[in-house]
Amino acid sequence: MAQTTGKINGTDLLVYVGGTAIGCCTSHSLQMTTATIDVTTKDSAGWTEIILGVRNWSISGEGLTEFNATYGFNDLVTAWKNRTLISVSFKTANVDDKVFSGSAYITDLGEDATMEDVTTFSFTFTGKDELNTPTYT
Length: 137
Hints:
This protein is mostly beta strands. It contains one helix and seven strands, in the order E-E-E-E-H-E-E-E. A seven-stranded antiparallel sheet has the order 2-1-5-6-7-4-3.
């Protein structure tokens, strides 16, 4: 299968745990951040000066609760409860496409059950170390 080209439909991007997509998800987000260190002095002419500090990353998402999903909320609860280090990736199902991946822990997990509405869950994976990023040419 050839690599996907052009614009990507967000529906095609999924979050995978150990090679299995998290079921019934409705949205995902990959965040990469860099901490800043303030190095402002009296010589900074009234402007903040910074240098870059440590980097981190996280993948978060939301979905519809389905207790018999192939990999779903119940599995996330078990991984969170056991403090399991998870192999997580953010990618399409196309094996030739670019992949963001790494090892992460579940640092936020919740379920929302509003009256007369569908039950949803949310999660955040926080990277343990470096995010493996694809090379773009």
